[in-house]
């Protein structure tokens, strides 16, 4: 049984509390599909409620930390703080809205501009992916390691496709797909950037790339992949994968190949 560090315990407790509310709301969403307007407002409220719970719990446990959340609830506070939380209360919102059980809560802790810990909680499968710098990555109590596949033709690669209103360069993404797709065993667009990263760390996906994200989508996943032995590079050479929120994350074996394909597209 692995001893979870104090910071991870704080994150896990907050995620479980917010996850309970989201799971309850997810149960309701199914019933709302038939209404003409659909469950959009309901889901946006669920998202905001989850962020509120996370902010309260995390700030109570670490009052000196700043806070950056995806939902602008008017209380983002990161000014002059050495440490801050970076959270996505509901990653995979479109899945959630459609009753697809693939979404999560993502929490990262940053210190002096570097991600030092991350936790991704999937309330549906009850999986908690977590990592703290230098301590390795875990799923619940099991050590996580990226896959060892070397041959691209055997690799399952995840990405994120553009959608109406997304901050992605549609033409560029199509070129990237055209470059990677014919060389690999399969491409997945599962709909949660945070879970895509967690799955790379767990060796379920061999790699993942995406651009046009928010820092909250990938901050936790970044450290979890790295601590599981994976490599993470910025989409653009010389960039910063977390701050740019545009990255390529893979196992150690195929990294150079995928980076080359995606960057050249
Ligand atoms: C989205 C998901 C998705 C990615 C989008 C994100 P949201 O986050 O992570 O996989 O492709 O770019 O915005 O809206 O579900 O929190
Ligand atoms: Ca998100």
Main traits of this protein?
single chain; 265 residues; alpha+beta; Fructose-1,6-Bisphosphatase, Chain A, domain 1; D-Maltodextrin-Binding Protein, domain 2; 2 domains; 7-stranded mixed sheet; 5-stranded mixed sheet; 8 helices; 12 strands; globular; binds D-MYO-inositol-1-phosphate; binds calcium ion
C-alpha Rg (nearest Å): 18 Å
**Percent of residues in beta strands?**
15-25%
Cofactors and ligands present? D-MYO-inositol-1-phosphate, calcium ion
User: How do the helices and strands follow one another from N- to C-terminus?
Assistant: HHEEHEEEEEEHEHEHEHEH
In the CATH hierarchy, the architecture of the largest domain is 2-Layer Sandwich
- The side-by-side strand order for the widest beta sheet comes to 1-2-3-4-5-6-7
Query: Largest sheet, described in full?
Result: 7 strands, mixed
Structural class: alpha+beta
Mean pLDDT: 93
The H-level CATH homologous superfamily of the largest domain, spelled out, is Fructose-1,6-Bisphosphatase, subunit A, domain 1
* Helix proportion range: 25-40%
- Low-confidence stretches are none
Instruction: Categorize the overall geometry.
Output: globular
CATH class of the largest domain: Alpha Beta
Total individual domains: 2
At the fold tier of CATH, the topology name of the largest domain is Fructose-1,6-Bisphosphatase, Chain A, domain 1
The strand count comes to 12
Total of helices = 8
Cα separation of the termini: 45 Å
């Amino acid at each position: 049984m692995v001893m979870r560090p104090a910071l991870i315990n704080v994150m896990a407790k907050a995620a479980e509390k917010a996850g309970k509310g989201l799971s309850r709301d997810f149960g309701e969403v199914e019933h709302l599909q038939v209404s003409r307007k659909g469950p959009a407002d309901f889901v946006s409220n669920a998202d905001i409620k989850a962020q509120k719970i996370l902010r309260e719990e995390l700030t109570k446990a670490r009052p000196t930390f700043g806070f950056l959340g995806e939902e602008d609830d008017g209380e983002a506070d990161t000014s002059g703080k050495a440490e801050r939380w970076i959270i996505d209360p509901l990653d995979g919102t479109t899945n959630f809205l459609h009753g697809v059980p693939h979404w999560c809560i993502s929490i990262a802790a940053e210190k002096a501009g570097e991600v030092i810990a991350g936790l991704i909680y999937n309330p549906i499968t009850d999986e908690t992916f977590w990592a703290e710098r230098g301590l390795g990555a875990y799923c619940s109590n099991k050590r996580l390691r990226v896959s060892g596949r070397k041959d691209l033709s055997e690799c399952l690669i995840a990405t994120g496709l553009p959608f109406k209103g997304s901050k992605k360069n549609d033409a560029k993404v199509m070129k990237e797909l055209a470059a990677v797709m014919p060389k690999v065993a399969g491409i997945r667009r599962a709909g949660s950037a945070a879970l895509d990263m967690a799955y790379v760390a767990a060796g379920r996906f061999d790699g993942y790339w995406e651009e046009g994200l928010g820092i909250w989508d990938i901050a936790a996943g970044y450290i979890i992949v790295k601590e599981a032995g994976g490599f993470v590079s910025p989409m653009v050479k010389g960039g910063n994968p977390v701050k740019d929120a545009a990255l390529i994350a893979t196992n150690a074996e195929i990294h150079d190949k995928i980076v080359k394909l995606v960057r050249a597209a």
